[in-house]
């Protein structure tokens, strides 16, 4: 059993074949899907997915940093309303993204901090999105760190030192397609990170692993990432699947 800890199953890119795509994943042994939120536009689609796949789809709720715009306070209120109302398995994806646009960097950092505080209050894990913003993300984590805070550094693409720092804040590293890229860099040092800190993710429809790089990603392709971790860690396919699924259970509580 393999767990995809970060997949956007509700993406428009799956509108034509979503059911078949989920079945392909299950046939490949990928049977648990954790779904990060982006903003209020997707909430209804997420709730429908959960209803249709009660034992395999697990929802997160949160405001993605690239959706932090003029109306971010309204969007945060939407997140708060939902986490007060029903069970979600994490707050995410949250964090900072200074790759495309720095206009709202202050608000991004504030929204990140606010959502971390909610996670601590509710003892929920977080799912962190960090792009071109390690210093800013670590600044928040350093001031908010606590035994009550845990989660996943989604699509981890930093250095060994940044990996160790993330782990020091009770974060696991979300590893996906990038680990299979020729120039992905993280495959060079992952063997120095204990596998107990690793969870698997696709970030589908983005970041398809080799040999599908550049195409639409889907959860079934997680098997290619498992193959890569077999090489890196010298463990069997079965062991990688079991350990990373157990790690996902340790984070999400399910
Ligand atoms: Zn994502």
Q: Would you kindly provide a written description of the structure presented here, covering whatever features stand out?
A:
It is a single chain. By secondary structure, this protein is of the alpha/beta class. It has one domain (2-252): Metal-dependent hydrolases (TIM Barrel, Alpha-Beta Barrel). It contains eight helices and eight strands. It has helices spanning 18-27, 43-52, 72-85, 105-122, 134-144, 160-168, 222-233, 237-252, and strands at residues 2-4, 30-35, 57-59, 91-97, 126-131, 151-153, 171-175, 198-200. The strands form two sheets. A five-stranded parallel β-sheet has the order 4-5-6-7-8, sandwiched between helices. Helix 5 (134-144) links the parallel strand 5 and strand 6. Helix 3 packs parallel to helix 4 (105-122) and helix 4 (105-122) runs parallel beside helix 5 (134-144). The radius of gyration is 17 Å and the shape is globular. Zinc ion is lined by residues 6, 8, 36, 93, 203. The site of zinc ion (ZN) has 5 residues, from loops.
Topology:
Blueprint: E1 2-4, H1 18-27, E2 30-35, H2 43-52, E3 57-59, H3 72-85, E4 91-97, H4 105-122, E5 126-131, H5 134-144, E6 151-153, H6 160-168, E7 171-175, E8 198-200, H7 222-233, H8 237-252
Parallel strand pairs: 1-2, 2-3, 4-5, 5-6, 6-7, 7-8
The structure holds zinc ion.
Quick summary of this structure?
This protein is of the alpha/beta class and 254 residues long. It is 39% helix and 14% strand.
- Count of discrete structural domains: 1
- Anisotropy-based shape: globular
- List how many beta strands DSSP finds: 8
Small molecules (ligands, ions, cofactors) in the structure: zinc ion
H/E element string? EHEHEHEHEHEHEEHH
Note the beta-strand portion: 5-15%
* CATH fold category name: TIM Barrel
CATH superfamily name? Answer: Metal-dependent hydrolases
Number of helices, where a helix is a run of at least 4 consecutive DSSP H or I residues: 8
For the biggest sheet, the summary is: 5 strands, parallel
| Average pLDDT taken over every residue | 97
CATH architecture group name:
Alpha-Beta Barrel
Question: What structural category do the secondary elements indicate?
Answer: alpha/beta
Task: Give the strand order of the largest sheet, numbering strands 1, 2, ... along the chain.
Answer: 4-5-6-7-8
**According to CATH, what is the class?**
Alpha Beta
Estimated radius of gyration? 17 Å
* Low-confidence spans: none
């Amino acid at each position: 059993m393999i767990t995809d800890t970060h997949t956007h199953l509700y993406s428009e890119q799956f509108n034509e074949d979503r059911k078949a795509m989920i079945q392909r994943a299950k046939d490949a042994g990928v049977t648990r899907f954790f779904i990060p939120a982006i903003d209020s536009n997707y909430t209804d689609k997420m709730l429908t997915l959960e209803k249709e796949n009660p034992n395999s789809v697990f929802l997160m709720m949160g405001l993605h940093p690239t959706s932090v715009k003029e109306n971010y306070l309204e969007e945060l209120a939407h997140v708060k309303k939902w986490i007060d109302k029903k069970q979600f398995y994490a707050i995410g994806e949250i964090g900072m993204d200074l790759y495309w646009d720095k206009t709202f960097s202050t608000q991004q950092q504030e929204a990140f901090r606010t959502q971390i505080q909610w996670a601590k209050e509710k003892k929920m894990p977080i799912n962190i999105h960090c792009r071109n913003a390690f210093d800013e993300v670590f600044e928040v984590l350093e001031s908010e760190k606590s035994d009550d805070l845990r989660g996943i550094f989604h699509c981890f693409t930093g250095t060994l030192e940044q990996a160790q720092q993330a782990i020091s804040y009770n974060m696991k590293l979300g590893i996906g397609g990038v680990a299979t890229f020729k120039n992905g860099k993280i495959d060079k040092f992952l063997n120095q990170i204990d596998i107990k800190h690793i969870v698997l993710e696709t970030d589908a429809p983005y970041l398809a692993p080799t040999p599908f790089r550049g195409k639409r990603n889907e959860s079934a392709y997680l098997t290619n990432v498992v193959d890569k971790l077999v090489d890196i860690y010298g463990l069997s396919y079965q062991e990688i699947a079991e350990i990373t699924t157990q790690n996902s259970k340790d984070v999400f509580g399910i």
